[in-house]
Design a protein that fits this description.
By secondary structure, the chain is α/β, with parallel strands linked by helices. It has a single domain, classed as Rossmann fold. Strands 1, 2, 3, 4, 5, 6, 7 and 8 form an eight-stranded mixed beta sheet that branches. Helix 1 crosses helix 8.
């Protein structure tokens, strides 16, 4: 990945945005979206900004919660993710405004929103303090922020299994992108980062969901097509790619055997949710 921009390296390319929406949203991010929105307690008529919105998993739940009297803006740096989000059927509630832009330079006036939410994105920002300061700037004087990041990789068995297999069969450091999902797993570091941006009443809550998939092989396939991990094999000859994928899948199947039965694969995920206020 040498030569990539710090933000571009974490992005999903091309058809991966479609795979992300088709598989990862219903299986993973839509579940976490409900947890995040429940945590922040959105109310009818509120103005909401979803930063690093992806295809809009949180955005759509927020639009339903604030209703037609509310306002929901969704921002992401990835134009392809936004295109997929725009193409989906509208939900009942507030209309969604889609914006392409960086979390470190939000295109909104100060005090525009009652709440800013950011699901599973903060750990990927190249300048986290700047992004948090921007969130603080655009929140109203009595507003709030709600952020989520994954917990420790050792508490997320599927991620741990895939990361180890990639390093063994692709090469040292192949799992860097995957392991970076857990870069803000330390609760104290996370709370301190948010407080340093000027937020008050910072609290961190650890939550869990169960992710269900057809099999460990399906998990590997989805991860390697609907996430930035797809770039690992962009220049790999097909025969070699198949050998590597078979080896990675075998390792993941072995490690996730305790979470697999005749009904498929069911594994736990852990994430931290940070809540904070502006006053």
């Amino acid at each position: 990945m040498s030569g990539m921009d710090d933000e571009d390296r974490w992005q999903v390319d091309g058809g991966g945005s479609v795979a992300y929406q088709r598989y990862l949203v219903p299986m993973v991010t839509a579940k976490w979206a409900v947890v995040l929105v429940d945590r922040v307690g959105l109310r009818p008529g509120e103005r909401i900004l979803d930063v690093a919105c992806g295809t809009g998993a949180v955005t759509r739940v927020a639009a339903e919660r604030v209703g037609t009297a509310g306002r929901v803006a969704a921002l992401d740096i990835n134009a392809e993710m936004l295109a997929v989000g725009r193409s989906l059927p509208p939900v009942a509630g507030a209309p969604i405004e889609w914006h392409e832009g960086s979390a470190s330079d939000l295109p909104f006036p100060a005090g525009t929103f009652d709440a800013v939410v950011c699901q599973l994105g903060l750990q990927f920002f190249p300048d986290r303090p700047a992004a948090l300061r921007e969130m603080r700037r655009v929140v109203a004087a009595t507003g709030r922020v709600a952020l989520s990041v994954y917990g420790p990789i050792d508490h997320n068995p599927a991620t741990r299994a895939l990361a180890g297999a990639l390093d063994r069969h692709v090469g040292p450091g192949a799992s860097t992108v995957k392991r970076s999902e857990h870069a803000l797993a330390d609760r104290d570091e996370l709370a301190g980062l948010v407080a340093a941006a000027g937020f008050d009443d910072v609290s961190v809550h650890t939550d869990h969901i169960t992710v269900s998939m057809d099999s460990p092989a399906a998990y590997v396939r989805i991860q390697l097509t609907g996430t930035p991990l797809a770039r690992l094999f962009a220049d790999t000859p097909p025969a070699k790619r198949r050998r590597i994928l078979d080896a990675v899948t075998a390792d993941v199947e072995a490690e996730l055997a305790p979470y697999t039965d005749a009904g498929g694969l069911r594994f736990p995920q852990e994430a931290h949710h940070v809540l904070a206020a502006t006053a």
